[in-house]
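Appendix C: a fully annotated inverse folding record. The material below is reproduced so that readers can follow the format used throughout the book. The structure is listed first as tokens, followed by the designed sequence.
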């Protein structure tokens, strides 16, 4: 079998990757904080992880993926207090929206979606182990911290030498400065506002709640085991989040936590990171309002390598809308053709091999896309010629199925909403009436009004029908 290459943030190198047991890839992906619907920046990362899991499966391994749902953190607690709700009441609807949007983007479901608040017992056990090993301590504020100077490997992932280490200095916020390394909170003593929104649990150190970093270590090791094959997330998680996950896990077990670390680059808007606090977020809801198919969003995201930044723009989304239409047209042609020229077989074999090679080369999706579109062009040209080689047609269908099984770019049928259908039907009736009274000016005006919206009318023996251009 051929090599599967991945860039490993730990070594800063592209390396051959494979699961430790040769069969199943145990993969942990940091999921959304469910206080707001995830934005397209978050989804760029989740789409990169979808591409990763599908490419691993294409290579012949089975995949067991965990994506956690962070349902307790500073932001959620703040929101719950503002609205007079419990944290569950804040997060439950956001979890539902996440899955709806995930489905729209055709992101395959992970095998597990653990919620942090369902793993409090495992988190407490992990903190107990760390205290027993002497790498964690309860401070006078009653919270428990990880002592980074007791774990000499601290900083390996993020190459900490470029940062200032503030051993003994403590930080309790879930998200904190990227410049200093400090003792971070594993378990936070409960405050009044935590109790009010049901974000506090009993522990050996008094009532409290877990720190964000602790969640991932506890859930990853509980579900996937102490050493996992692959851990992924966005580049902003390298420090401190992933550094802290490694420290907590490896200090407790004495084993390697994750064999390979993969990080996806940011989605930008006008060259700034898409982020809630910058105020430049686009969500799936906006794409749906534009009538954009999830396939087009995938095409847009996969057009740039996951380790490069990508700028979101309407023009690029429009180009993707057109591109996936061509993929859909070929899919339909392959499905309905009765035969093809024999030359289609070699074209299909080459396309499939090129896509497999591109994806196995550190998930080179842009190259996979270009191989797909070469296939689209060549296959269309050959199908235009006509032919009766059924085996060649079958080979093309199977190559297409393999390629699209990973990229998933065939758009669904164009959704026509009821309001539009009713309005067009009304205008068709008005136009019929105008023509009956020989008011051709009005009839032309109605036709032009619809044409401006991309709708053409076709007069036939059974009356007037319409379609989108
Ligand atoms: P959060 O919900 O903030 O914990 O983020 C969920 C995931 O989205 C993490 O893996 C982040 O690294 C990733 N992420 C956040 N913002 C962006 C962005 N603008 N582009 C790509 N990934 C992002
Ligand atoms: Zn995490």
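Designed amino acids, in order:
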């Amino acid at each position: 079998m051929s090599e599967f290459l991945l860039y490993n943030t730990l070594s800063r190198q592209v390396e051959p990757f494979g699961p430790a047991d040769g069969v199943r890839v145990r993969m942990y992906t940091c999921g959304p904080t469910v206080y707001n619907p995830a934005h397209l920046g978050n989804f760029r990362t989740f789409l990169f992880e979808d591409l990763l899991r599908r490419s691993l499966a294409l290579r012949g391994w089975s995949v067991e993926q965990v994506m956690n749902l962070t349902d307790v953190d500073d932001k959620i607690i703040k929101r719950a207090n503002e609205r007079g709700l419990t944290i569950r009441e804040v997060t439950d609807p956001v979890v539902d929206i996440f899955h709806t949007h995930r489905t729209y983007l055709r992101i395959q479901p992970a095998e597990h979606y653990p919620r942090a608040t369902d793993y409090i017992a495992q988190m407490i056990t992990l903190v107990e182990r760390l205290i027993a090993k002497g790498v964690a301590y309860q401070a006078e504020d009653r919270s428990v911290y990880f002592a980074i100077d007791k774990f000499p490997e601290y900083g390996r992932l993020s190459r900490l030498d470029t940062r200032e280490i503030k051993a003994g200095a403590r930080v309790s916020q879930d998200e904190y400065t990227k410049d200093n390394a400090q003792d971070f909170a594993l378990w936070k003593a409960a405050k009044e506002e935590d109790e009010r929104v049901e974000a506090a649990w009993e522990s050996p150190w008094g009532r409290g709640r877990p720190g964000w970093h602790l969640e991932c270590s506890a859930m990853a090791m509980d579900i996937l085991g102490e050493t996992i094959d692959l851990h992924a997330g966005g580049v902003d998680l390298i420090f401190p989040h992933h550094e802290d996950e490694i420290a907590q896990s490896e200090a407790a077990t004495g084993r390697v936590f994750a064999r390979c670390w993969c990080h996806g680059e940011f989605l930008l808007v006008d060259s700034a990171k898409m982020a809630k606090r910058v105020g430049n977020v686009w969500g799936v809801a906006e794409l749906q309002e534009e009538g954009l198919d999830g396939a087009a969003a995938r095409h847009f995201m996969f057009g740039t390598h996951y380790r490069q930044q990508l700028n979101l723009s309407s023009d690029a989304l429009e180009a993707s809308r057109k591109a996936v239409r061509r993929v859909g047209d070929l899919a339909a042609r392959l499905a309905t053709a009765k035969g093809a020229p024999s030359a289609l077989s070699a074209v299909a074999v080459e396309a499939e091999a090129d896509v497999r090679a591109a994806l196995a080369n550190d998930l080179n999706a842009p190259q996979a896309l270009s191989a797909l579109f070469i296939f689209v062009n060549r296959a269309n040209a050959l199908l235009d010629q006509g032919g009766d080689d059924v085996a060649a047609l079958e080979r093309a269908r199977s190559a297409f199925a393999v390629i699209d099984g990973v990229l998933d770019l065939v758009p669904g049928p164009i959704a026509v909403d009821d309001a539009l259908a009713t309005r067009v039907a009304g205008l068709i009736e008005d136009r019929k009436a105008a023509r009956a009274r020989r008011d051709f000016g009005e009839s032309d005006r109605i036709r032009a009004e619809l044409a401006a919206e991309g709708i053409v009318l076709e007069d036939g023996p059974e009356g007037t029908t319409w379609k989108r251009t």
